[in-house]
Amino acid sequence: MARTFFVGGNFKANGSIKSIQGILDNLNGAKLDPNTEVVIAPPSIFLLTTAEKASNGVKVSAQNVFHKPDGAWTGELTTKMLVEHGIEWVILGHSERRTLFHETSELVADKTKAALDAGLNVILCIGETLEERDAGKTLDVCCSQLKAVADKIQDWSKVVIAYEPVWAIGTGKVATTEQAQEAHEGIRQWLSSSVSADVAAATRILYGGSVTEKNCKDLATQPDIDGFLVGGASLKPAFVDIINSKL
Ligand code: G3P
Predict the structure, then answer these.
(1) Catalytic residue among 67, 94, 96, 184
(2) Structure confidence by residue, pLDDT tens digits, 227-241
(3) 54: closest CA among 88, 80, 5?
(4) Is the alpha carbon torsion for 94, 95, 99, 103 positive or negative?
(5) Residue 217 belongs to a domain with what CATH number?
(6) Which key words tag this protein in UniProt (predicted)?
């Protein structure tokens, strides 16, 4: 089954009115591969203006969402608010949220379920630390993060998985194409044996961690790498080259 190549830009807590306008001008005016799905995730305060101004097929994602209905959750956004404002995607389970904000795999699973129930698409992030990789636990960690979600959802058609080894995020230390392919293949095998062969064949698995315009083309040749979730480089004009890495 052909999986549409997907490139996400996670701006994290970066950007100003001016710089985000600059990113949008660049994307809106660029020649983007029509066969690649592009989704950008600005900080929440910029979601609405980004959604209003993004064109050229670029969709917008939140970087997080709360899993409960509207209520007394100071500082949070609910799924209903995103949907009402035409935001179609949300990133969940990013390692920065797991680590800095103590989000457990259980909570990530609850958020994923709530987002899907509300009709949102989810970029579900998983990945191991360097210590876990060195201990040979890469797939155990990734699959247990996935299992928490698999225990709570049935329909994977609106889920894109982002494999982001923690040691490669923002470090300039990209996984080798072999390391990335090996992890992606293992994740797909787990999906096949633990969810279904159809879900394994259809679900996009993105690589994230120090992706740049220089290393994207090699990574994109791998059979189980269906795109990227890009942090730092998504803030730069060369993000267009990453979007076009299959051209
Ligand atoms: O979600 C994207 C990510 O964590 C990778 O960040 O800056 O290493 O591309 P970066």
Answers:
(1) 94
(2) 999 999 999 999 999
(3) 88
(4) positive
(5) 3.20.20.70
(6) Gluconeogenesis, Glycolysis, Isomerase
3-class state of residue 101 by DSSP: coil
Predicted complex ipTM exceeds 0.95 = yes
The domain tally of the chain equals 1
Our answer to whether residue 52 is catalytic in this structure is no
End-to-end CA, the chain: 20
What is the domain range of residue 225?
A: 5-243
Is residue 94 annotated as part of the catalytic site, yes or no?
yes
CA distance 192 to 173: 30
Tokens of 224: 């189980």
Map residue 221 onto helix, strand or coil: coil
Contact 159, 112 (CB under 8 A): yes
User: Of ligand 1's atoms, which has the minimum distance to the CA of residue 212?
Assistant: 9
For 122-175, write each residue's pLDDT tens digit. 999 999 999 999 999 999 999 999 999 999 999 999 999 999 999 999 999 989
C-alpha span between 46 and 49 (Å, rounded): 6
* Ligand 1 atom having least distance to the Cα of 94: 1
pLDDT, tens digit (0-9, with 9 covering 90-100), for 34-68: 999 999 999 999 999 999 999 999 999 999 999 99
Query: Taking a C-beta distance cutoff of 8 angstroms, is the pair 146, 109 a contact?
Result: no
Q: Taking a C-beta distance cutoff of 8 angstroms, is the pair 234, 211 a contact?
A: no
Longest dimension (CA), the chain: 48
Quote the pLDDT of residue 1. Answer: 61
